[in-house]
Design brief:
Bound molecules: pyridoxal-5'-phosphate
Number of domains: 2
CATH class of the largest domain: Alpha Beta
Radius of gyration: 22 Å
Structural class: alpha/beta
Helix content: 40-55%
CATH topology of the largest domain: Aspartate Aminotransferase, domain 2
Distance between the termini: 33 Å
Number of helices: 14
Strand content: 15-25%
Length: 408
């Protein structure tokens, strides 16, 4: 039995051969062994993103988490041009915050967390404002919503804009076809659906667009995307000292995905997500977004009114299960359950049984539950999309009821 079952959107429980890969003998990264390793990773990344015209795309690997890859794209690509960020959650907001640091001409089209991106609003915006670069998150991890790559890619192309996508929590789970979706650059990281340890991220992009970065102003020393490209192209190397052993682990994790087959992996994750979702629905739980809009790796669930999300998390932790608490407008309102990494269908059943036990032990009996629901409904203030936020006083009343039930 693993020490913790990580039902999170990352980090994940890695499989045994990835755990073994990180224990390899030491090598010098300026030797041929590392160059082979990096070439092998690059090749696998191009396959992962369904690249058919191999000469037209390159992949670079950065020592740093997913944000490093995002910041390297946003600091290197825009120069003085106009960039539009599409945001419907925390990670879209982060793209915006990063872009504002580096790019004066940053525009934002903001949607509520958990709301679909409106193509009409984007089109209308593009009619009135010249935009050279569109950037967005593929899987908005804060709500679990999968944003429409192909449609936005098409829109970007028809307006002559390049398209940048944060695929940090979708690569390795969803099928992502860079060429078909007109994606110019996309980023991801090692520690989510890719199934390796945290610490590495990467950018995959069009060779001709990498080339164009050469003469643009340098806004970051470490995260200069052109430098990563130039080093891999010229020397099969990284500009600075890489976290070599994490590269071994990433290489193994990528081999695992490709050996399984991208379509098979996606189908397997879908099946796991469906099992989780059916199980949680049968416990009477409600989801924050429609199932049709969800990614295959994560489910965002409203916390029942009779239990505090922190308590739920702690009770599950006592059963070796780790879940996420909702953030931003979902804070204290929702929890998140991932289904990536080395989690089996048996683990998922164990999670569902454990969740049932915890919820049953807190569920008020008789007339208390409808009263709590009523209190919660009456306390709605500042409704933003579907999110209902109780006042602090009402939260306190609910919590008191919860505590009195828990101490019965
Ligand atoms: C969609 C998305 N983008 C970016 C990030 C940031 O990645 P990191 O924490 O690896 O820097 C995350 C992390 O959860 C994410 O889910």
């Amino acid at each position: 039995m693993k020490q913790h079952l990580l039902f999170t959107p990352g980090p994940v429980n890695v499989v045994q051969n990835v755990r073994e890969a990180i224990c390899k003998q030491e090598i010098c990264h300026r030797e041929i062994d590392f160059e082979y390793l990096l070439q092998s990773i690059e090749n696998k990344l191009l396959t992962l993103f369904e690249i058919k015209n191999r000469a037209d795309y390159r992949a670079v690997v950065i020592t740093g988490s997913g944000t490093a890859a995002n910041e390297s794209m946003l600091s290197s690509v825009v120069a003085g041009k106009n960039i539009l960020i599409l945001s419907n959650g925390e990670f879209g907001e982060r793209l915006h915050n990063i872009s504002k640091i580096h790019n004066e001409n940053t525009f934002l089209l903001e949607f509520n967390w958990g709301e679909e991106l409106s193509l009409k609003k984007i089109k209308d915006f593009l009619q009135i404002q010249k935009i050279d670069i569109i950037a967005m998150v593929h899987h908005e991890t804060s709500s679990g919503m999968l944003n429409p790559l192909e449609k936005i890619g098409k829109l970007a192309k028809s307006h002559g804009a390049i398209f940048i996508v944060d695929c940090v929590s979708s690569a390795g789970a969803e099928v992502i076809d860079l060429e078909k979706c007109n994606i110019t650059f996309c980023s991801s990281s090692s520690s989510k659906a890719i199934g390796s340890y945290p610490g590495l991220s990467f950018v995959v992009g069009e060779t001709q667009e990498f080339e164009k970065l050469k003469n643009l102003p340098i806004k970051s020393m470490y995260l200069n995307l052109y430098k990563f490209y130039d080093f891999i192209k010229t020397f099969s190397q990284t500009p600075n000292t890489p976290a070599v052993h994490s590269f071994y682990a990433l290489n193994q994790a990528l081999s695992n995905i490709l050996n399984e087959g991208i379509q098979n992996r996606y189908a397997n994750l879908r099946d796991k997500a469906n099992k989780l979702r059916q199980g949680m629905l049968s416990l009477g739980l409600k989801f924050v977004i429609n199932q049709k809009d969800m990614c295959s790796i994560l489910t965002t669930v409203y916390t029942p009114s009779y239990i505090d999300v922190g308590v739920l998390r702690q009770k599950l932790r006592e059963k070796s299960i780790i879940i996420y608490e909702g953030k931003g407008c979902f804070k204290n309102r929702a929890f998140q359950v991932g289904n990536i990494g080395d989690l089996s269908f048996t683990d998922i059943q164990y999670f569902l049984d454990s969740l049932k036990k915890v919820l049953d032990s807190f569920k008020p009996t008789g007339e208390i539950l409808p009263i709590i629901e009523l209190v919660r409904t009456l306390s709605v203030v500042g409704i933003s999309s579907q999110i209902q936020k109780p006042t602090p006083e009402i939260e306190k009343i609910s919590t008191n009821i919860l505590i009195s039930k828990a101490t019965l």
